Amino acid sequence: MEEGIVRVSDVTYRYPKGEEPALRGVNLEVKRGEVLAIMGPTGAGKTTLVSLFNGLIPHYFEGRVTGEVLVSDLSTSRHRIQDLVEHVGLVLQDPETQIFGITVLEDTAFGPSNLGYPREQILNLVREALAAVRLSGYEERLTANLSGGEKQRLAIAGVLAMQPEILVLDEPTSELDPLGRAEVFEAVSALRAERQATVILVEHETEDVLRLADKVAVIAKGEIVWYGAPRDLFRDVLRTRDLSIRPPEVAELGLKLCERGLLPTDEIPLTLEEAEAVIREMLGGKKLEAQAQTLSSPGTVERTTIIETIDLTHVYPGGIQAVSGVNLKIRKGEFIALVGQNGAGKTTLVKHFNGLLTPTSGAVMVNGVDTRELGIGELAKQVGYVFQNPDHQIFSTTVEEEIRYGLKNLGLSEDEQEMRIREALSLVGLEDKRGRHPFTLSKGERQKVAVASILAIAPPVIIIDEPTTGLDWTGTTRMLELISDLFRTNGSNSP
Ligand SMILES: Nc1ncnc2c1ncn2[C@@H]1O[C@H](COP(=O)(O)OP(=O)(O)OP(=O)(O)O)[C@@H](O)[C@H]1O
Ligand SMILES: [Mg+2]
User: Fold this and answer.
1) Which residue range(s) make up the domain with 258?
2) Residue 48 sits in the same domain as residue 135
3) Ligand 1 in contact with 438 (CB < 6 A)?
């Protein structure tokens, strides 16, 4: 039998500053042309594992690796990163750490230029790569001004342009809208079909894993705890949940039917088509009469307006109009979801609520006062903002200090600070990471630190920009519960 193109043998690894190993005794083999999904909860070691494949570990992160990683027969600890990039393209979880160019064109050309290709060929590769991620026409745009989702697609294009035989994607679509996700995954499928590329994908979305992956490896606390075909895992709904992975929705439905004795467990459907077949069979051709239902609407209560935008328009330097003529009223106790495609202006809009941006024209009123008349400090008490990218918000050297910072600014007593820090840490489940440097945490853990530091302040309005980016399923469920609890107890607003 052919040997795997990626072979991990008995690998144990500890970060230089890590208290315990981030990976323990990992064995894994990926065959040429295979798509492997890596799943598992926040902090499990997914990013650490994929960082071994292109030599980031141990060449960049250092620390001690035991065991061996072979990629295209090259040992990743003995070969330099520069020699590995031709074989392995790694798209990092955080696109910003991977964007170097000033313009989109420059950035995408960076990799192939370093490989010394002729100019014509570089331009062709760039054109194809940008088309694959729906960024054609963006060539001259400044990378610094792209939205989170656009940056994510650009990072993928940069790697595609080098045409590596192994493509490693660490949560490549966590900041993308559904259209963007579908397009990235189409590009991945095409790459595999046309070039037999091998793809390793860290991904939380069960449905996408089911559609794309041949194999799935689940990691927990640095160990591989499940390996096999995705169907075999997801059909076992209880085991899937145990591993902190969200089972496919139709499988949940199937499990309910099993529990009522209506379906044998080995017939639990995993896709909509399979569910349809099961249901048809159960109905045995019976026709169901649809019943129209009138929903009575609950009586509406007038509530005080907390935030109001009046004809709000924002034009960024360079002329891009990100928000135009928005009129919006947010009332006390409302829970508001802002939805829109990447680049639609969601972040631009909410940054006006706490004074991070000021209107080009129009106005934003918080509790009836124009934000231009309130200082940032005053606004911070009223409106807490959790950034889309936690690293834009975190600047202290320990998790504890990060949360304390805002509390000190409020002038709270030591005791009160301590109480709130403890409460916030327990709300997000980070009690044991209190003394850690935020940048030694996984991305999902950093996201939790960012949320905790705002929760501790308990402002009347909380804005959370894509709160679940980079969180696993348990994390997402907990975060959403947390937000809605908070909203019930405090009457906070959360767009
Ligand atoms: N630079 C670092 N120094 C020390 N410890 C680290 C460092 N980076 C990560 N860790 C720790 O290693 C463990 C695994 O982290 P890793 O980033 O691989 O998790 P992950 O599964 O990718 O999580 P996420 O889903 O949040 O991205 C965590 O306990 C984390 O706190
Ligand atoms: Mg990660």
Assistant:
1) 249-282
2) yes
3) no
Count up the domains in the chain and report the number: 3
DSSP string, 432-480: GGTTS-GGGS-HHHHHHHHHHHHHHH--SEEEESSTTTT--HHHHHHHH
Using DSSP, how many helices (H) and how many strands (E) does the chain show?
A: 17, 16
Q: Is residue 290 part of a domain?
A: no
Ligand 1 probe mutation, 24, 441, 472, most atoms within 8 A of CB: 441
Q: Tens digit of pLDDT for each residue in 378-404?
A: 787 788 887 767 777 788 889 999 999
Question: What pLDDT, on the 0 to 100 scale, is given for residue 334?
Answer: 72
CA 112 from chain centre, in angstroms, equals 27
CB atoms within 10 A of CB 318: 8
pLDDT in tens, 267-322: 888 888 888 787 777 765 444 333 333 333 344 456 788 889 999 999 888 778 88
CATH code for the domain in which residue 341 is found: 3.40.50.300
Half-sphere exposure of 131 (CA within 13 A, CB side): 8
Ligand 1 mutation pick, 11, 47, 469, max ligand atoms within 8 A of CB: 47
* 1 domain-assigned: no
- Same domain? For 120 and 171 the reply is yes
Q: Residue 263: helix, strand or coil by DSSP? A: coil
- Whether 48 lines ligand 1, by a CB cut-off of 6 Å, is yes
For 209, the token pair is 């894993």
